[in-house]
Design brief:
2 domains; alpha+beta; Rieske Iron-sulfur Protein; 6-stranded antiparallel β-sheet; 8-stranded antiparallel β-sheet; 414 residues; Naphthalene 1,2-dioxygenase Alpha Subunit, Chain A, domain 1; 17% helix; 18 strands
């Protein structure tokens, strides 16, 4: 349970808010490269952290994000001409380079220096690892792009998608770090024999995992330990990486990394990377998610059609009646209020990771207002971590992490 003040602090990410300052300390995923495919291509609209922007790749290939409203009289720069290393407003011809500087005012006298006094708000962008990243914070901070496990893999070894979730970012993050719901919401499997990685299939019948948290320089790792029989435990170790990234444990490759970025306070961009470090991705995993409405980032399965729940399937084979795991998650988070009222909830022992995440983000947001950047923002290498899914007789989280360090992560303890 949070106070109303803390709930607002957690949820609000627009300009001038503490949580907005925290997010703006990081390089954030903003676009897929296909959205800006070549120099001088058409600009695209982008909404992030409550700001309406337009992104473009100039003649030299540089990427920038600029306020969508022209500083002249507020016309949309989305309709602008991307030409000769700048974006030109089609209303009166004012032109801006990637820094936001006005470089041409054809409707002003030739001798006028007025253009040198005008600047559009602009943020730098860079393409790396199959993602176009944006930095929206102060120039003097100089953060690093997070060196996520999949970032430098060949293109054929990863598939990156994105979509919009119609709820506040915190609800999606809380779902990603909630190991207890797996035994119920996603129940449709039985324990399988051990596989070569040492884990047993996908789900344990133990629905009450014991949680342990270890804070790190990248955020924290939480271990969910379930009884697996024969004096062994089924462990799921999930790294929560600042600002809001998780890689979910899985009994087999490929893995999936989730990056959740506030579009605004009521909607969230989900960037997902499915990847395999050792070999190319299976052909059937390539391409967009089939449940996205063509030409949009919106899901065709949504609260209006009850996510196409199948009650017969629910009776016979599936705990929810909703076939796909990600859609099962969406059915829970997207039917909550857009901003959850956390003043009336009742958290239990399996909510430890959620409590830790909230306290950490609120603390770091308050520090961000004082100009203190998170260590993880300035040191991108701490994000090079992996989750772990394993059956082991070890009962203590720290010992388990050390035992499986080569499979799990390069841990930088706090």
């Amino acid at each position: 349970m949070l106070t109303q003040q803390d709930n607002d602090l957690l949820a609000q990410t627009g300009p001038g808010t503490p949580m907005g300052a925290f997010f703006r300390s990081f390089w954030l995923p903003a676009l897929l490269p296909a959205e800006l495919p070549e120099p001088d291509c058409a600009p695209v609209r982008v909404r992030l952290l409550g700001e309406d922007l337009v992104a473009f790749r100039d003649t030299s290939g540089r990427i920038a994000f600029m306020q969508n409203a022209c500083p002249h009289r507020g016309a949309s720069l989305f309709f602008g001409r991307n030409e000769e290393d700048g974006l030109r407003c089609v209303y009166h011809g004012w032109k801006f380079d990637v820094s936001g500087a006005c470089v041409d005012m054809p409707n002003e006298p030739t001798e006028s220096n007025f253009k040198h006094k005008i600047k559009a708000a602009a943020y730098p962008g860079v393409e790396r690892g199959g993602v176009i990243w944006i930095y929206m914070g102060p120039a003097e901070l100089s953060p690093e792009i997070p060196q996520l496990d999949w970032l430098d893999l060949p293109d054929g070894h990863k598939v990156i998608n994105k979509w919009i979730q119609p709820s506040n970012y915190a609800q999606g993050v809380e779902g990603n770090i909630d190991s207890a719901h797996i035994s119920f919401l996603h129940r449709s499997f039985e324990l399988a024999p051990r596989n070569p990685r040492g884990a047993r299939g996908t789900l344990s019948p133990d629905g009450s995992p014991r949680l342990t948290i270890k804070e790190t320089d990248f955020g924290f790792v939480y271990g969910a330990r379930r009884n697996a029989g024969n004096d062994e435990y089924y462990w799921r170790l999930t790294p929560f990486m600042l600002p809001t990234y998780t890689t979910i444990p899985s009994p087999a490759w490929p893995r999936t990394c989730f990056m959740l970025i506030p579009l605004d306070d009521h909607n969230t961009w989900w960037f997902t990377t499915s990847y395999n470090p050792d070999r190319p991705m299976p052909a059937e995993r390539l391409g967009q998610r089939p449940w996205l409405i063509a030409g949009t980032w919106q899901s065709s399965l949504n609260p209006e059609n009850d996510f196409k729940i199948d009650r017969e399937l629910q009776k016979a084979l599936n705990f929810t009646g909703i076939p796909e795991i990600r859609i099962q998650d969406m059915a829970m988070t997207d039917t909550m209020p857009r901003i959850l009222n956390r003043t009336v909830e009742h958290l239990g022992t399996t909510d430890l990771a959620i409590i830790t995440m909230r306290r950490m983000l609120i603390r770091l947001a308050k520090q961000a207002t004082e100009g203190i950047a998170p260590y993880a923002a300035l040191n991108g290498e701490v994000h090079r971590v992996r989750p772990l899914d394993v059956v082991d007789a070890e009962a203590e989280l720290g010992m388990l992490m050390e035992k499986h360090r080569e499979k799990f992560l390069e841990l930088a303890p706090r």
